[in-house]
Amino acid sequence: MTGFALRGLLSRKLRTALTAIGVVLGVALVSGTYVLTDSISSAFDSIFSDNYKNTDAAITGKTAFDVPDGTAPAPPFDESLLAKVSALPEVGVAGGAVSGEAQLIGKDGKSIAFGGAPNLGFSVDPEHQEFNSLALVNGDWPGPNQVVIDTQTASKKGFVTGDTIGVQARGEVQQMRISGLVEFGSVSSIGGATLAGFQLPTAQKLFDKPGKLDQILLKAKSGTSPQQLIDAVQKVLPEGTQVRSAEDQAAKDAAGTSDFLNFFRTFLLVFGGIALFVGSFVIANSLSITIAQRTREFATLRTLGASRRQVLGTVVLEALLTGVVAAVAGLFLGLGIATGLFKIFDAAGLTLPNNGLVFRGRTIVVALAVGILVTLLASLRPAMRATRVPPIAAVREGASLPPGRFHRYRALGAVVLTLAGVALVVVGLFVNGLGTGNLLTLLAVGVLLIFIGIALFAAQLVRPLAAASDPVARGSVLVLTILAWPLFSLPYWLLRRGYWGPGSGLKRAGGFVLGAVLNPVLLVVVTAMAIRRRVSSWEPEWPAEFPGVLIDGPAAGIGGQNSRRDPHRTASTAAALMIGLALVTLVATLGAGIIKPFEDAVDRIFSGDYAVAAQNNFSPLPPTVAAAVAKVPGVQAASSVRGGQGQVFGDTIQVTAVDEQAPSVLRFDWKSGSQETLGTLGADGAIVNEDYAKKHNLALGSTFSMTTVVGKSLPLTVKGIFKPPAGGSPFGDVTISTTTFDAATPQPLNLYTFLKMDGGVTAANTAVVEKALANFPNAKAQTREQFKDAQASGIKSLLNVLYVLLALSVLVSLFGIVNTLVLTVFERTRELGMLRAIGLTRRQVKRMIRHESVITALIGAVIGIILGLGLASLLAARLDEVSFAVPTGQLIVFAIVSVVVGIFAAIWPARRAARLNPLEALQYE
User: Fold this and answer.
1) Given CA atoms 72, 73, 79, 80 in this order, what sign does their dihedral have?
2) What pTM was estimated for this model as a whole?
3) Is residue 215 classed as helix, strand or coil in its secondary structure?
4) Strands (DSSP E) along 695-817, which ranges?
5) How far is CA 908 from the centre of its chain?
6) pLDDT tens for residues 796-828?
7) What residue spans define the domains of the chain?
8) CB-CB neighbours of 210 under 10 Å
9) By three-state DSSP, how is residue 484 classified?
């Protein structure tokens, strides 16, 4: 039977390839994800290890509690510690450094940024080259008020050694001479990050850390072990500092990056899983059709003595071989996907660190295992059906597979699965106290069961939906034809007529003139004919070679009947597209439900005229920016919202701070307190949000203690409780006064600055604010509407990324429709031959296949859109930050896309069917 299975696969190479395409694409995304993230991880590991080359230990500041990476940097410490540790007998070499964000300014006066990559600034010490991770490529190391920049930035922005470049850190932009160009360590690319290196005193001044250090790197004296060095240093460390080995410090620095890469990997793998899930429907449907077509073949095997187990083994073996080939193909296609993703990110300005593609053994094992397992699982039901072929079917014409024992319970089972899935989703969303892992598991399993249940039940909906979709399919194809004809069909028609192509210039010119005249005329004619006659019976009398009109009444009617002939097959084919469109609809609906509440929240909170934010819309800004705009003539009030971390009741929370001018530009929905509370918090006043107050039983006048990142304990009294709007707010669980916040927070930063001006928003006011920000190129002033659009742009960008990733599942479903139609052409070969023999033209055959394809796509679109809206409504009911808003325009686009998918999916099968020779088709077995 093994040889029989191999010969069967080789005799059906086209069908096998089409069946495997879903697995190939899904495995390719899984493989590409691992290659991409492993390559980035390897590059980051090299970066962090290069940071501590020739280093045995590192001294850094220490926060009083663990904080999320990047949200609260460790406080700097006094530089006198450098001399103290240098004097230790165990220390061979010691070097101090400071670092921070240093925004380089281009020749156009704008800040230099490549995507969301960081702008790194740090001190360099040429005297201790053993600690230096930079390689000087050109020029010299920096002197006073000089800077070295990376070669990538210099090349892209046209800077050379000796040029002057602007640098903005904690204060106004400063002009510095470029003393040299540098490259970082051993990695071929550090991504889109910009590098700026300074002499230590210059860096301390820029980063507002006079007499302070962020780090001391240590090399042990000969004969001293790293642990002995650490033990000796530990004895002289002041409070607020810590010492780690070089390996531990590199791991600590990389922790945030590792967490992000793990999330990024999981995020991409989810979409690879979705593509494989959709691909499993394609495989199951393709195998079911193939097995149905091989009924007589399996019956002959049973007649010759093959057992049911042998038939089962044959089908499973064919699926196994298909899965192996598809998984291997997808595995290596993943290398191309990873390379393409690097280039796409690079083109978008988000250059990722890269030190060459990393192809690990884990990638091979996971990709192959997933691809093969999905294929085998998808083949089980079709394989079981193959075993039910009775031997007598070998001698009967048109024999079909008998239904299984549980076939009559299919609809009931589908309903039970769907309800079970909905129940799991509801439990996951509305039951409190579930851990993150349990919550995600319940949601994933619930949604999976919903998809499977709906896909099984969809067969009951095919006939009514197909009937309802028939006129829609005719009308939509007609509209697309009218729109596409001038662009695509007219040149082809002119070419056939000889007006376009090789020939005299006059003849070609005449063709273009004729085309320009015919375009509007034919559009009017076609539209008038469509209105005058019913679409279902309209058959225009164009010349035989004219390809422009795609509608045909009789052919379309046969196509509609074909879609209803086998509801289970149509439903299974539509299910693949249904899943993709359900998820796309879910994303679009949630996006609309997030953006609208956010915009409403801004309108409710922000009562000023202008907002000052970073150019990238999300980076915090130093207080010097707010101080500059506060001096602008005409400013009635300028208030900033600071952000940081604190520890209250044993938990790390977001802490914000406001100043006494906040009541003039900010509005709160007060449960306790008033607008005046914002400006009168004083040294110990605090405002908490309603949920936080309920969680910890806080009321007006309640007292509690908050620990700051530097370990200072702040006694606080609740002076106000507010209810944040549904769209969220920039305020943390606890809000205190700016004075109290600054006294306990090193290097405070503003999240936003809000302005209220005489006369409101005017061209003159905008100009004067922008002039004040000229010395801070990394900041920008925005009106309320501009601020809302800029903040929402991040959400929209994320939605676009999700659409692109979900497009892969739609692509897989397109191949599923192609596969079904091609297999249907094989199955209906004799039928097509008969239709051709009684007068059906090639064009009508194409239209018949196309119409069936569009109806199938519309069925998948209708079910998918409704299902997506249902899932979105459940999430919106659970999440206060999300409202249920139907994105009508986007849903119309999705429906149009589904029609286009149906048309494109039918191109090849339709051409294949039209090319059948009627006489040969009538003799097909």
Assistant:
1) positive
2) 0.73
3) strand
4) 703-707, 713-722, 734-737, 750-757, 779-783
5) 32
6) 777 777 777 777 777 777 777 777 777 777 666
7) 55-246, 468-551, 552-605+785-925, 620-777
8) 9
9) helix
